[in-house]
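Minimal example, chain plus guanosine-5'-monophosphate.
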Amino acid sequence: MSKGKLFVISGASGVGKSTVLAKVMEGREDLKFSVSATTRPPRPGEEEGVSYYFVTKERFEQMIRQNAFLEYDAHMANFYGTPEKQVDEKLEQGSVILDIDPNGAFQVRQKRKDAVLIFITPPSMQALEQRLLGRGDTSKEQMQMRLERAHWEMEQSKQYDYIVVNQQVDACAEEITNIIAKHCAEE
Ligand code: 5GP
């Protein structure tokens, strides 16, 4: 039996998931972050093998054929997937956190029945819409797509084991830390 447990964390885009996750993982040697493969180009500051493994579409398709993914999904015209071998290696060292979207989360639940699914939600849909609009860096069409996606993601949250509200980053991170501790204490 592996040493750790598998935690899947999702959240509507714009909810502040990365900030919360960074807090949860801070100084925790026993928690490992699963690094996904993606075909999207790196953003400034993102590091190969840390943020993502940045791969070509051809390489991604090859990995699908090789059955290398625990789950994968297409999202905003790019592919994202969790390399399965990496997850199992990390599970030998501790618990593993997957930051993936709802489609991926449900695939993981099918394959790993003991995975714990946590969804981070904004205090209100209005707050999320304001955050998305506040970014102000995109066209009207892109904004519409983001909003539709956010609504869809919120709808999926009903199927998660836990829904945690991100009213305040520290409190949200603490709640997730407690959920992780509770499941890690279980046999
Ligand atoms: P971004 O491009 O902003 O880094 O991520 C976009 C979305 O893709 C986020 O909701 C993130 O959780 C999701 N994502 C990242 N990696 C994976 C993955 O390996 N599989 C799936 N299904 N979704 C992922």
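The chain has seven helices and nine strands. Helices lie at 17-25, 57-65, 84-91, 102-111, 125-135, 140-156, 169-185.
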